[in-house]
């Protein structure tokens, strides 16, 4: 499974400037694989991982909403990211810049 960057008109800065709830910022992730995504993990250093909160599994060939929680407001835009799939497999770890390329696509 690989990550791709989709063209987007939003930046993390604009997401943070327009929260849907106080202290809660959202973006979407597109799953272009044949297996549902059940976990999304990020790490600034590639060693300590934090889970993004997802409302439910992201269906194959679907998209889902990801919550950028208040505790990550002061973290770097560039993060290591990996996803866990419903079948128990994990994606490769990739570096992703949420500010420069906020549209995350998993292929």
List keywords for this structure.
single chain; Immunoglobulin-like; four-stranded antiparallel β-sheet; 9 strands; 42% strand; 107 residues; mainly beta; five-stranded mixed β-sheet; 1 helix
Structure description:
The structure is a single chain. This protein has 107 residues and is mostly beta strands. The protein has a single domain, classed as Immunoglobulin-like, CATH 2.60.40. The chain has 1 helix and 9 strands, in the order βαββββββββ. It has one helix at 12-17; strands at 3-5, 24-31, 37-43, 50-51, 53-54, 62-69, 78-85, 94-97, 104-106. The strands form 2 sheets. A 5-stranded mixed β-sheet has the order 1-9-2-6-5. It has a 4-stranded antiparallel β-sheet with strand order 4-3-7-8, with no helix packed on it. It is globular, with a radius of gyration of 13 Å.
Report, as a whole number of angstroms, the end-to-end distance: 5 Å
Estimate nothing, just give the exact number of structural domains.
Answer: 1
Widest sheet, order of strands: 1-9-2-6-5
Count the E strands: 9
Coarse structural class: mainly beta
Beta fraction: 35-45%
- The CATH topology is given as Immunoglobulin-like
Query: What characteristic shape results from the CA principal axes?
Result: globular
Spell the H/E element sequence: EHEEEEEEEE
As an assembly, this protein is single chain
- Rg, alpha carbons: 13 Å
> Tell me, what is the CATH class?
Mainly Beta
Give a short overview:
The chain is mainly beta and 107 residues long.
């Amino acid at each position: 499974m690989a990550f791709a960057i989709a063209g987007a008109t939003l930046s993390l800065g604009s997401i943070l400037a327009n929260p849907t709830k106080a202290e809660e910022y959202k973006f979407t992730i597109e799953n272009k694989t044949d297996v549902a995504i059940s976990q999304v993990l990020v790490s600034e250093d590639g060693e300590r991982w934090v889970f993004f909160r997802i409302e439910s599994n992201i269906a194959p060939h679907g998209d889902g909403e990801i919550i950028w929680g208040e505790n990550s407001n002061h973290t770097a835009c560039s993060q290591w990211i990996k996803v866990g799939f419903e079948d128990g497999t994990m994606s490769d770890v990739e570096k992703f810049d949420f500010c420069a390329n906020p549209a995350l696509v998993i292929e």
